[in-house]
Amino acid sequence: MGGGSEVPPHHVPDMHGEVKMIEDIHSKNEIAVLVTGFGPFPRHSNRNKNTSHLITKLLPSHIAAHSTFNPTRYRIRILNPTSADGEYIRVEYAYIRQYIQKLYDEYEDTVHLMLHLGMADGWDFYTVERFAYQEGFTSSWSGMSRSGKGYYCQIEDESGKTAEDITEAEGKGMWLNMPMGLSPSLDVDGVVTKSMEILKVDETETTLAAYEISRNGIDHTALQDTIPSVTLGNTANVVPHHEPGCYCCGFTYYESLATALTRPKRDIHVLFTHVPGESDERSLQRGRSAVLAIIGAACVQMADQRGVF
Length: 309
Description:
Elements (H helix, E strand, L loop, with lengths): L16 H12 L1 E7 L5 H4 L5 H6 L5 E2 L11 E5 L13 H15 L5 E8 L5 E4 L2 E2 L4 E2 L10 E2 L29 E2 L5 H28 L7 H4 L11 E4 L6 H15 L6 E8 L4 H25 L4
Parallel strand pairs: 1-3, 1-4, 4-11, 5-10
Antiparallel strand pairs: 2-3, 6-9, 7-8
Helix pairs in contact: 4-7, 5-8
């Protein structure tokens, strides 16, 4: 898929998915997390960059066990297939449907958590999304109007098409037998609470490091380059959120949740996080910290639920 090093596929015996995940974590002594970001969508945002993609470029390949962003005893490996230039998820419904299938084809024997990132321009917080809805779902809160109700995935994508334009060859009607709404198997509120705890620890450590820098006579303006995790007094705010919307973010979340449910090989968790649209260096570093905290919090919950914490 491109973008960073890949983990070779790991053969898993044919047994219940959750048991396979536990054995895999134990045998490798690590939890594998795959992160994706979107490309630009200038038709709607007048932007030629997407912060969800820019943040993936800042993520490390591993998070050490018992570290600030990873309180578990397992190393976290971050797979980052969309981080390279041009390797982002394109903002096109048909492409997304096929891309998610290819993603699972390549990584389903390796990954324990899929974390999809999207950009919400104008927001000043980071989310963990509770639900995703299938195309064709109607709601009174989505902001799209068709017969007085919202209608999902009817905003034209970057190719000028909607989800209704997906052809048979591209997977039209793939999820007709699935529920209209899906939710992640992880506790969203628990992930949010733990991620904020992690971010507070990170801010405390940054504050102490800043004190040491000042005490040693180093110019305080050097702090941003010396300690890239957070900006003092400007810690990211992570909140639970109802859904990632009726455009390609919500479409991607549903595609991934539905695919994870219908792939019997193993138990793969899926989350979606919206990040703000500010793309200055300070904001991107704050986004990096928020995403790492969410990854760490999700891994704590995964390990704790399975008795491997």
